[in-house]
Amino acid sequence: MKSLPTLTTQQAGELLAFQRASKQGATTYLNPSDPTHRKFIESMLNAAGRTPANYPYLYKALNTGGPYKGAPGVDNVRMVDAGKTTAGKATATVWSRSSNDSLIKGGNLMVFDSDTGALLAQGENTAVKRGFLACPARSATAAPAGKNLSLLYMGHTTDADGSTRFYSYTNKVAVALDGIKANITMPVIQHTGNVNIWIAVGRIAGSPFPSNTDYIFIEPSVNENNPYLIVPFKGNVALSGLIDLPSLTIADLSTSIFVNNGHGSTVEITRATQYTTDAKMIGAFSVGTPANVLQWEFPYDQKGYQQTNSIVYNSTSLGNEIDSYFYFAFNGIPLKGGATAPPFFVCSKNTPEDPSINCTQIPNLYFWWHCLAKGTLVTLEDGSKKPIEAINETFRVKTGTNGSSFAVCATALGRHSSDPAAGTRKEIFRLTTANDKSITATENHMVFMTADKCRSISHLVAGDKVMTDEGMSTVKSIEAIAYNDMFYALALGNIKEQAEKSFPHNMANYYANGILCGDQLAMRHHCNEAHHDLEYMLPRIKQELHTDYASALHHKRF
After folding, report:
1. Is the C-alpha dihedral spanning 8, 13, 19, 21 positive or negative?
2. Which of 336, 395, 524, 534 supports an S-S bond with 242, CB 3.0-4.6 Å?
């Protein structure tokens, strides 16, 4: 959009009235059959340029929908930034996540001057097959920030089965006169060439370490369950007054990690309070020199989740992880004299828009975990085969790239289970080819169809071509299966190999049970690429969702 939406005095008043009547800082499901809710949804859709012609299914859901009756917390919105930019303009960003198999997500964020009621900033965005949506205000069209901001967000999610939900989020923020930028020394990228911060969890003492990994946490024994996420976090910040550390409470601090599995859902992983207790959180903070400097240290000590002093987050499946996003909010640090510092934030980079002067951005995270089932035979450089669970970073594997071989730069493991018959998520698939080769893998595992094209195993159908060590074959059968065992993953190319121009970035592959498969980095890249390929995706989704899906892809800002 080239300018802010034009709102009449009545429209602005109605939107502000809705904002003020809503519970602040909370996600609220909307009822399209309620006249007030319906009018709010329509106003926000119109302001975002979402028309019935572009989104016929969404408007059909609006016209026929009623109160939400599903499980609570399927969708959640969190404010990750708000205030003014270095240019003095109003800004805000929210993250919205959905834990169902979401197909389309959209949202519109408005930022009002709380005192005058003027619309200061607006931003809309869409996402497909991610379950995660970052929605920042547009910097180019924003007006100067006032003293207090009122945030109003309307989001919508359409799942693969067509079920659609509308929800709102509101909040209020006092604008800081001076910026609060934190100095973050951990976590940071330590290896040249990494785009994200690589963190290996669940490593075993004595095993070779991934060559490109920035942080590695070691367990005393193999963890055969979903991993606890661990992040070192160290830094400091200068505030406007002397810090009243004895008054600091756990309510002044909040943190979580958003894990995008690349297949329609994103989960928010909160702090594991049994390991990083409230007392341990508060105890990591101290007053520096001078006494207006707040410093914190959750050090990198390489220890496992039960012993580490880094921040431990609850356990989760990472078999299909594409990216993970870090969030830490300082909600009002107490200052001497009874004052509090304005809120400030540390979070992952997720938007090209200008952040506020109170937001410090770090790269996204990536946790190393798992993909192929235990017992899968991987072809080595000399043509011999070895079970994937026995492979470490000292091995070289044969690839389908001109008969070359690459070093293994990282491995990972973890337990996965699924039971389609019980109605749980179909996370594990077994593929068999016409030349009698078979693999069992998690749903985003990449299988090469041609030398320059690979797709998720869960997207393949009988008759699709796939590459094997005996040449081209076809898929004889593909099915979601009940399974419960260990899974493993490989990433290929040591630092020297990845620096070479000929290295197939995002296309590195190896033979698993004779089928050519993409490594972990290929999975991350091509999972998103496939979802942006309309020729590939439209035959795999409901006909009535085609126009909405194509429009959402077109309207995606970044």
Report:
1. negative
2. 336
